[in-house]
Specification:
It is a single chain. Helix content is about 15%, strand content about 0%. With about 60 residues, the chain is mostly helical. The termini are far apart.
């Protein structure tokens, strides 16, 4: 299959879809949502206490 044309005009697209019985009208806008609520649960996890740079003994100097 090859694309031989691209139609950008909304009126032309609507007429074609109405002709073949596939036009369902303009989609309805969904109601807007509230912004996300920030989590205030600050329970510690086992990963919070881990040291990002653990001290390993230096095998070359010991």
């Amino acid at each position: 299959m090859e694309v031989i044309a691209v139609i950008h005009q909304r009126v032309v697209i609507e007429r074609i879809l109405r002709h073949v019985g596939l036009w369902s009208g303009t989609p309805r806008m969904a109601p807007s949502r509230a912004p996300p609520v920030e989590q205030t649960d600050h329970r510690s996890s086992p990963y919070d206490m881990s040291d990002p740079m653990p001290d390993y003994e230096n095998v070359y100097t010991d």
